Structures are given as structure tokens and as C-alpha cells.
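User: Predict the full complex structure for these chains.
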Amino acid sequence: MDVVVCGAQKPFVRGGAELLQENLVQAIAAEGHRVELVRLPVAWEKDRLFDSPLAWRLVPVDADLVIATNFPSYFVRHPRKVVWLLHQHRGAYDAADAAWSDFGPDDPAIEVQRLLSEWDNRALEEAERLYTISGVVADRLRDFSGLAAKPLYHPPPLAERLHPGPFGDYVFCATRLEANKRPQLLVDSLPFTQSGVRSVVAGRGELLDDLAARVRGQDLGDRVELRGFVPDEELVELFAGALAVVYAPSDEDYGYVTLQAFLAGKPVVTATDAGGVLEWVEDGVTGLVTDGSPEAMGAAIDRLAGDRALAERLGAAGRERVARLSWPPVVRELLGA
Amino acid sequence: MTLPLLGLALDRRPPESLVPLLVASYRWCVPSTIEAGAPEPAAVMATVASAGRVPAGRPLALWVGSAEEVGSAAAGRAAAILSDDPATVQAAGERGVLAPAADAAAGRSVVSPFVRRRLRWARGLPEAAVLEQAGDGWRWPGLAEPLADDLVPTAMACASAVAVTEPGRLLEAMAWGAPCVSDPGSAERVGAEADTHLLVGDGPGQRRRLAEELAEDQALASRLSWAGRRLVERRHDAGRAAMRLVELLGLRPTLPGGAVASARLQLGLLGTPSDAKIASRFAEATAWPSMR
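Assistant: Here is the predicted structure of the two-chain assembly.
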């Protein structure tokens, strides 16, 4: 079968969506199909928001089947269109009130939201089958668009290489340093710990300077290591040697970090508003769920530092929970095989 | 754009309920006769009685009066089967086209429950607001008097839910994408199914209670909003029915201007108003370039 995977391209930005699209292409090829990844540039701000969706309506995509992933790639027209939705334009929907969204309570902005929701429904309804990457994304689609979709879970990047290791003396956080990932929650929680546990943060992003300032301001220089970009080999070992992983983004779509932590046999400390992370982290079973305050996060870290048997038990349960995630069933479902 | 000819063999005058569809079809094709000496039509629309006069080899749209006629010999060779009876159209399967009595969707943009909430918030209106068609008029929360008639469409476009008991107004509310509650008779008249397109209650009290519950349930409201709008488009929108007919007859016109015309068509099909920002950006991008 000839398959085209469609995705949006935000020039100079690379994150979970790009990794998913590339890994999906590899997984489809591994099943013996011809497959290509097609991307068109997208602009997120509302004045240019519809340019890319309109472009997707017009480009010819010759294949036996197309798999559209994120906004606005699902505007592609094809008689056999399958949508595996990573997210709609979150700034116009569930995150409309977030500080980074440019949708205010003014008539022009609301009309853009109205038109976008109509366009979205028409394009998504064309799909032969409609899937989402997580239950959280399916819930959003149900609540905002009134459309039903089936969550289809997939393994994270590095799934084959991640492995358990000794429970070390640091908590680990690997994430893009951006507002919605809230990496500052880890830094801010450390002054509230009694155990003196260290932390290692891997990742780049616009919040790097802010994080460094927080570390200096709270005199945490000897307890927080901001590693910046970390190669894959090193990342795998950082997961393997951690006591636990701290990951508390704001209403995450899916959250690869959670799954990577579990594959390394580590429990995850998170927050009640972390979205897709909570589909995996069950309080006291595979990790610890807090209210997201620095005090509560610090207490959760201390609890694991003081009871390594608990950390091992939660980490093992997490590893068991993700053990069956693999690409071949995902590919078969998407291709209708 | 060169429009194809649609030959008409509808006896002396077309059935009354076919007229809106016929009028809407004229955007895509030009009516003509099938008399000897007339130009050859690209397709023909006929009744069962007149189908015998239709030359062989021309795509045929057949107007049928009953489900029995769907099994006739004429229907066997038809590319499209037209009726004003939903059950007959359903019996015709993929070839069926329902002739709507009106254009209920025209001029009414779908407003989803999420956007309705943003509209109410922006205007300082109640977080949840049920619009109710009562004995003395349309009732809006907090107002002692019924709404003035000219405000009803605005209220329909921003209410959390609408309780309505008149089939025409029910269609209007669903066209706006309002999550609706109605009575069994009105729902049946417009072809709406309970729990699929709207909620149904027997008396005013029950309908009000259902509407209040619907106003608090965004998932259900979103589902009914979109399903209701699509029902209006599928069964009460002559423009979309005409496009379906043109497609079944293979009369899809070749648009001049290639991609530009295709883009314009896509903008229309996606529901884009002519004053939308994307419409002006598109016009700007495809305007005559400045010469250097």
C-alpha cells in the first residue's frame, strides 16, 4: 500500500509531533508499505490561521491512503483519509485563555474561533476513521467539536533503548523548557525537600534563562544541574540512573516523558492538571500525583527519596503498564488491516 | 464557466416540492428541453411517467412519488433518484437525493457551544442561558418581557440551549447550531431523531428541564449542535442537495481559473463568509500582480 503521512511544519520548531510523524513513517515502512511524510508550513496566529488549512484543501496527495496527524494537516482531501489526531489548534480551543494564546474576548477573535470550529468539523468529519493519540485529546474533540474518536496509544521515542537501572540520588526531568511544560515546578519544589535530593534537567527552550535565574535566586546551584541538549545515549542513561522522574506539564496531550520514565522503571511525580500524563500515572500505583504546589511536589520527592522500596515498586508497576505498547498494532489499526 | 445543459422532462409543470432543488441546480447547469432539434442535454431530469421519452445514454435524474417507484424500470437506469419523502430517498440508497422544501441553512452560520460560551462571556451574558419558545413568545433568562422578534436569531446564535416547539423555528435554531429540545411532533416533522439530533420532551416543564441540563453538558451539547446542523444541511438545504445531484449526474462543471476557482469553492464548502479574513487574504494573494 502507498501511504502518505501528513503533518504541519512550524519552521525551526521540533518536538513531539515531529518525532511521532517520523516514527510512524518508519513503523509503516517496517510493515512493508511504501510511505512518505508530507508537511506544509503553518502559522498559528489568528490573522494567518486559515492559510495553511486552505493550502491543504488544494494540494494533490496521490496515495492509497493518507494519515493526517496535527492541525491543519487534517484538511487534506482524499477519499481514504484517516485522522490520528495529535491536537487541534489548542490556542483557539482548550488553551484559549492561556497567556500565550492570541484569542481574546473580542468579536473578531470569536468569529475566527467560530469559523475554525466549523472548518475543523467539516474536515474531521470527512475521515474514514478518526483516532486520537490519547484519551485527553479524544475528550477535547468530544467536548469542543462533538465528534467521537478512539484513542490509539503508541510507544515513545527511544522505547527500544530505555532500560531500568540503579535508583540514584537525583530526580530527573527531560522536557522542552517552555511555559506549558512548567519545568520551574521541579526547581521551585527543591527548597521544600528535606532529603537534599539533587535534580537534573535536560532540554532546551525559551525558559532556560528563567530557570537558571530561579536556581541562582534560591541558592540551588549545587542541587540543580541544567544540562541543556543531551544526546540520546546520555538521555537513556540519565533515565536509568534516576531516583524518579518529575514531569508536571499543563494539560499535556500525551507526554512521552511519562512513558520513557516507565520504560526505565522509574516512578513519575506529577500534578492533577497534567492532562494525558494522568492516563498513565496513578497515584500510589505508578507514581505520585500532587496538587502541583512546590510544597506538595517537594513532599512527594522526599517520600520517594526516603522509601526507595516504594520508588522501585511504583517504577516496576509503570514498566509493566507500558510493556505492551508497540508500533505494529498501531500501524495495522491506522491502515485498517 | 460553461454550464452543462440539464434537459427537463417533467410533464407540464414540475412537482411543487421539486422547485427549490431545481432553482438551486441552476447554479451548476442550464435547463433545456429534450424536444427534437434542441441542443443535446448532458443529463435529463424526468418523472416516472415521462422517463420513456428520455433518450438512452443520458444520465437520468428521476423524480419518484413513492418508495414503490424506486423499484421501477425507469429507476433502474437512473443515476439519481429524487423525492420529497425521506423514506423513499433512503430506499434509493446512494443514488437518493432529498428535495428540500426550503433553504434553512442559508444565511445562518453554525455556532458551536464552545463559541456560544465565549460570546456570552464577552457580552456579560449569563454563563448558561436557555432560550425558550413559550406561549407568549421567546423567553430569555432575566428578562421580564418576551424577546422582540428581531432579537430571536441573535439569541438562537448564543444560547446554551433552545427549547422550541414550532418546526420552522426548530430548523432555524438547528441551522445556527443551537443544542435543541423540542416536542415529538416537531422533531418528526423535520426528520430529527431524539438523542441523535436533539432532545425530546413531552411538556413545557420537561423540555425546560432538559434544556437546562443540556446547557450544563458541553459534550452532549456539542454533539447535538453539529448533528443538528448537519441534519439541516442534508435534508433542508436546497443548495447542498443540488450539488449532490450534479455530482451524481456527472455534471460537475469545469471551473475556469483552475486552482483559484477550486479554492473559492473550497472556501464556500467549508462555510466561509465573504467578509472572513481568509477570503480577503485569498483575494489579495490571487489578485493581478503589480507589474515591475
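Residues 113-235 of chain B form a domain with the Rossmann fold fold (CATH 3.40.50.2000).
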